[in-house]
Amino acid sequence: MISQRIDLLRKYLKKNGIYAIIVPSNDPHFGEYIQDYYKCREWISGFDGSAGTVVITLDEAVLWTDSRYFIQAENQLKGSEFILKKIKVPGNETIEEWLLSRYANDYKIGIDSALFSFNDYNSLKESLSPYKVELIDDPFVEIWDDRPKKISKKISIYDIKYAGEDTTSKHKRLISLINTEGEFAYIVTSCEESAWLCNIRGADVDYNPLPMVFSIVEKDKISLFCNLDSVTDSDKSTLESMNIYLFEYDLFKQALADIPAHYLRIASGDKISAGNYFELTKDGSKFSFDKSRGGYITNLKAVKNGIECDGFRRSHILDGVAWVKYLKFIEDSTSSGKIIKETELAHKLIEFRKESEYYIDESFEPIVAFGANGAMPHYSPSERFSVIIKDGILLTDMGAHYIFGTTDTTRTLCIGEPTDEQRNDYTAVLRGMINLSMAQFPKGTRGSSLDFLARGEICSNEKIYMHGTGHGVGHYLPVHEGPQSIRMEENPVVLVPGMVQSNEPAVYVQGKYGIRIENLILCKEHIVNEYGTFYNFETLTFVPIDTQLIDKSLLEEKHKRWLNDYHKNVYLHLSPYLNFEEQEWLMAKTAAID
Amino acid sequence: MISQRIDLLRKYLKKNGIYAIIVPSNDPHFGEYIQDYYKCREWISGFDGSAGTVVITLDEAVLWTDSRYFIQAENQLKGSEFILKKIKVPGNETIEEWLLSRYANDYKIGIDSALFSFNDYNSLKESLSPYKVELIDDPFVEIWDDRPKKISKKISIYDIKYAGEDTTSKHKRLISLINTEGEFAYIVTSCEESAWLCNIRGADVDYNPLPMVFSIVEKDKISLFCNLDSVTDSDKSTLESMNIYLFEYDLFKQALADIPAHYLRIASGDKISAGNYFELTKDGSKFSFDKSRGGYITNLKAVKNGIECDGFRRSHILDGVAWVKYLKFIEDSTSSGKIIKETELAHKLIEFRKESEYYIDESFEPIVAFGANGAMPHYSPSERFSVIIKDGILLTDMGAHYIFGTTDTTRTLCIGEPTDEQRNDYTAVLRGMINLSMAQFPKGTRGSSLDFLARGEICSNEKIYMHGTGHGVGHYLPVHEGPQSIRMEENPVVLVPGMVQSNEPAVYVQGKYGIRIENLILCKEHIVNEYGTFYNFETLTFVPIDTQLIDKSLLEEKHKRWLNDYHKNVYLHLSPYLNFEEQEWLMAKTAAID
Fold first, then answer.
1. Contact B464/A442, CB-based, under 8 Å?
2. Residue A489 and residue B65: Cα distance in Å, rounded?
3. What is the ipTM of this complex?
4. DSSP per position, B287-337
5. How far is B464 from chain A (nearest CA, A)?
6. How confident is the model at residue A383 (pLDDT cuts 50, 70, 90)?
7. Which of A489, A507, A577, B568 is deepest in the core (most CB within 10 A)?
8. Choosing among B446, B461, B462, which should be mutated to test the A contact, i.e. which has the most A CBs within 10 A?
9. Secondary structure of A295-313 in HEC code, one letter for each residue
């Protein structure tokens, strides 16, 4: 089957005089999750991991993927002509190296003009020279027969009582960032940016409450390109009252071409597709890049207003209640000798979450990882491979969307008796998480300055984790957002009050276990004095932290104080929503340690 | 007198059709200290602070300086036509703003082509446009009648038993960094780079053991431009045996012009003067920038070899012995009611240092600052203004060059009874200093990732210090060196074993006191395991840390453990060199705290 598909694609290449095509994993909006319609890389290769790039030439087929997917890819590529290239493994060329070693005179490489950003296109052109890199239309339209349909679920208006700011005000603030005289058209590719700006939500992809939309922002209006059937007439009028005008999704490209000549076109080079960029600028029209890191709207969106912060707080109470039931369920099950599986647990937490009328959906693919599975930071249990839980370390990383906010929480617990190494690692992770939670820092501090407060504790155990300590979190929007981060790597964006991020140091012991503790933290103004302005963090998450795994001799007084205060708060906030038995359980779990 | 000097300079400007001249504070080598010969800014303005820039136009005279020098500058400019512009104070234009507001058609600005780097010249040209920025020769040659002579003290060969690596080997490693086929000429402007590469030392400026030299590095030889009379014939032969050939200092510019056409010229844009850059490239010769941060030699020099590290260790033992005598002297004096002054103390520590035959000189201008003076991070006592020491906080920051290494140590102590605020601040500074001393971090870590380990403790007290936590330290070379640093600001240079830097968190309470504790720390490899390679620091400094100022309730066990271990080591390393009375004193000062 795969070989027939490859044949079809090769016919397309030959017909168009192309030597090779690069098939990426994204859609035209460059978001984290994509619809089945866009899963061309999966269709052509049979590999269904979330990350990977395929190159098909006239006589070879190769998949590049990262270490998370080596085993899965090997299995799924078996029997096909596909060769697997392991990213960052010595002896495995990069896409560019591999392609360059095959160059012959006048060879062309095709890339879908909608699936590569302008900046990516430019850097490919440079790194693949002397190849000619040609922007092509989606070839799978021709060759993929039973291609799934695009999905357009209902687009709903996000209530101002949750959003806290109306589009008119957001629009005004965006205009002042754009800061240009005269008429302009600011191009928005990212669905989450349009959703935030227009106060709309959808359900067109998994886990992200987003409609598939583009928008064009002008001084006095916003044109929103979407499936018109997904919006009720009454909502259309409401949107128009905010100067948001709706057009069919497919008219977007034409609309770019139709922008009046004297308008200044503005877009982020990382976000606008190469195809749209050239559409926009083809008659030598005035163009200017949005050079802010992540783009203007992402920068506005990252700073939550008071209503959004309150929504986060409410969401975390609801979520905490579900977590308490979940953690109690695990304890009850394992202590009674009941056999449970990873997948079953994931369903269980979702079930408890669903008890709240405000629950919408999970905010990412659930991670319930037992024992050695926990050592894979992005492990997701599937019905086929779910592991039975017995004695050992269990890591759960799950998040939810509630109508007024988003959560993302990791808790690690031990079934049976932990080893000294496990206690030691767990306590280091906890120290790191608490250090960052307690940080006070001057205005102007970047996340990279704070990363080592958490990471350093794990390094003190001569271990490391290879991911960041914190990512930005959207407000009933994608759980991973920019522009700020708390990582080793330099990121020039400074933390400001209103930014929400995760705080998730970890330890992974290959083949044995993974430990991660994750709360969400909100940056706030702490104090202004003669030295300047200081910020700190409010912890949003209310879920008990397993104290059985702690080696108390490794905690300082300040850590114990923080943990005891935290647990007091967890009990205070959650107990009103629990029955007596649950309250008793939570009381025990949140008892102060000494 | 100043007005006559200004008149002379204005005559020069008129004669040359120049509207304004910018007079900076540096010499042609861009080092930290300059000879009197180059103090033109001081001569023309009367202001003798270390930092400041003068602009003289046909009808105005202005000095820009920073907050350290506001009072001094006001005093020294009094009675002259000079206006003072306070850098970073609202209402004070920058040099560029001030000049631009005076632009008239065809106005030219002159800058000495030897005193501005190529990069500085370029950015001035851009920021001062539409002015024409003209590179001129030193105008003070004509107008400064009794100008001091240039000083050329003896240049001596630095013994391989201290340097640990001969020039042949350094030259080879430099060539491999330059990494170019064919012939090249690498231009070295910085005296410390030439001194390191050629294993020579001098004494042509204060505090830096440097001769004033340029060099040109080729594949098979190094041309060193210096005062030939400063080198003995026997040393000349020794240098020639290392393929270092000596030429008169003044022939350097001509030598740049004489480089064969087919040679690739290489220099750092921050280090080569604009004049030399244009000399080097005037016939369209091949040129390439050294784009490494700080330059190739600075990068090689920053990583100390084993002999250099041992030299640092020895220096710190000798220095520790002098510090013990110094600290005991303070205690004896103050407890017996003797009146002592800041300047007297500085002399006293130098006197104790001189007891070692290996002592050469101070490594920077001594800082002995009592009470409110300590709140000025760069305060230096002078005979005129030295303060008498009574009850209060005393900060001493002094460093020395020994023949085999360099020191830089700060200790803070309290005479009389400290306040709670002082104890609290002192303990925060100590915690920060210890946190950084104990850090373990993965290979690839930048100094900016570690800065907050120290700074964060002071922020927890809602205070900050405005300087970096650590600077690189030269090996019997300038005490401040790059390319690494431990600061809030991003610096892409990663820390590697062999780098020596300071560890000096601080608190400054305006009008009251300053607290700083400073050790030097050496980056070392700690462990290699399945997670990778980890580094840590060895503390080089051996000077007791005042425990009277500590609020022990604010120290964790790990801090106490570190401090007690440290003090045990201080006693162990220093006591063999002390008399019985000093040993007893040190034993008490280094007693373990609980």
1. yes
2. 35
3. 0.92
4. EEE--STT-HHHHHHHB--HHHHHHHHHHHHHHHHHHHHHHHHHHHHHHTT
5. 6
6. low
7. A507
8. B462
9. CHHHHHHHECCHHHHHHHH
